[in-house]
Amino acid sequence: MRKLLLASAAILGGASGAWAQAEPTPFFQSQGMMAMKWGGGPAANNNNNSVGTAVKGAIAVPAPGTVVIRLNGRVQADITAGWDTGDQAGGGKVQPVAISSWMRLYPGIDGMATNGLRYGASIELRENFPGSAAQPTPSLTGAAPSASTYLSGQTVFVRRAFAYLGNDKVGIVRLGQADGVIGLFDNGEFTSQGWDGGIGNFNGGTAQFNGSNNGSAIPFAWLAQAGAEYGNEKIVYLTPQFAGFDFGLQYAPSMGNGNSNCGAITAANSGVCNNISAGNDSTRWLNQLAVGARYQGTFGGFTVKGMAVYETAGKEAIAGGGIVLNGLNNTAATSASAIKYDNLSFVSAAALVTYNPAGVTLAFAYTGGALNGQLAMRPTGGVSENAFLVGAIYKNGPIVLGIESGWVQSQGAVQLTKITQRNEWEIAFGGTYNVAPGLALVGEFIHTQRHQGGVNFSTGATSAALGSGTRDGQANKLLFSTVVSW
Fold it and tell me: Domain limits of the chain?
């Protein structure tokens, strides 16, 4: 008998509230059809917004002909301490101890028509800080701003905004700035992101960035819950579940939003607009297409899950077609935007098994193919990417413990194509104690290291001369955090 449960465990952790009516199976909850709260991430580029922060209690479900309006949120306060090879880059020195805090707001609406149509919309609002991509970077040489002046530069911006339509027997369509098939199939389980209360660990976590110039932070190549995966506008269709299987399909015309005001396509503005199919930046991809399948089943005391997604995208047409790199004939001054790139073409696959009586989950994730780092195109002639992630999570009542490790092999610096390749490794471990509904205490340690011949990870400089200009990126960070969510 076909299951009518829509089983894409997507963006949702949980929400407080009471049932609007008694329904034995909130089938749409795990499909992303409820505009409930996500988890959260610590910085403008952090992306872990689905796991580890569920508020205990029933989920308010709209009765036929009604809607449920939500305003969930999250506040996180952290203490970090650590060492990074980039801490003394640029003539300054970073304070190794940092205290930080941030907020997230998750307004949304879920409705149900009298004919059974499910519909709604959801927004994620984040706090932005001076020094992020959207704010000017403070100078090492200028006068230090007062705390009041500094916080006046903070802003709130939209990270996700989407609408959905769904039906029990047909599935769900999501449209807008939101997760694709990879992010919807993996809400953090396959990539072991849930053990630290949604802090983020490898996926742009606080411990990666506080007290660092980011040179030792490894881009999250596995993409689930990553901003590079959910930040562009797309349409996604997810099926109901059949005998444990469900399927997904997504399309995105570009890397950006159709509301972007590109104006005339000139050298001056084409670098800030992602809706260009022919211009002067060969790093832009377009016409993104993904298709995937997932399985979920329980056998005795074991829960088994697996997923596989194939994704591809074309690229912007460049006058002259770009430059094919040619080993030692390259120079570090070669413009990355003038280099020729291959179409995106890669596979994301993962599996996990949970032994339910012991509360232990073992998970594995892999991403590989024609890409370079985090959803960036591979330079023509560069090596294929291979990224492996393994993790183990133990849950016992209010205690959650975890450990995970990741390896990423990729081309890295495009100017060094056919000269050197990038090798990265990271490990993190720690846990969460859920003191009360909505209150979690988190502790974790993370170590990262990056190497590519000819790359200085402290300054970002590259050198094509073999044996020179190399400085590995390494970091050790310790974090303690208080998380309040509602």
Answer: 72-104+180-258+275-485
pTM given for the model: 0.85
Reading the block at residue 54, the tokens are 């569920």
The b/e string for 26-51 (b: 16+ C-beta within 10 A; e otherwise) is bbbbbbbbbbbbbbbbbbbbbbbbbb
Q: What are the C-alpha distances in Å from 434 to residues 131, 460, 481, 485? A: 32, 40, 12, 11
Q: How far apart (Å, rounded) are the C-alpha atoms in residues 372 and 378? A: 5
Residue with tokens 């020094």: 131
Measured CA to CA, the distance from residue 376 to residue 50 in angstroms comes to: 23
Residue 280: is it exposed, middle or buried by C-beta count within 10 angstroms (0-12/13-18/19+)? middle
pLDDT tens, residue by residue, 126-138? 888 776 655 555 5
Closest CA to 192 of 17, 53, 394: 394
Tokens representing 368 are 């590989």
Distance CA(1)–CA(17), nearest Å, equals 32
Span 316-363, pLDDT tens digits:
877 666 777 766 555 544 566 678 899 999 999 999 999 999 999 999
Positive or negative CA dihedral for 208, 214, 219, 224?
positive
∠ CA(352), CA(356), CA(362), 5° rounding?
Answer: 25
Residue with tokens 């530069």: 153
What's the CATH fold of domain 72-104+180-258+275-485?
Porin (2.40.160)
How many alpha carbons lie under 13 Å from residue 239 in its C-beta half-sphere?
16
Residues written for the chain: 486
CA distances from 155 to 128, 143, 406, 486 (A): 5, 22, 33, 22
Q: Hey, is 151 helix, strand or coil?
A: helix
The structure tokens listed for 318 are 């460049």
Q: Which helix (H) or strand (E) holds 209?
A: helix 206-209
- CA 183 to chain centroid, in Å, comes to 8
- Tokens representing 408 are 């990423």
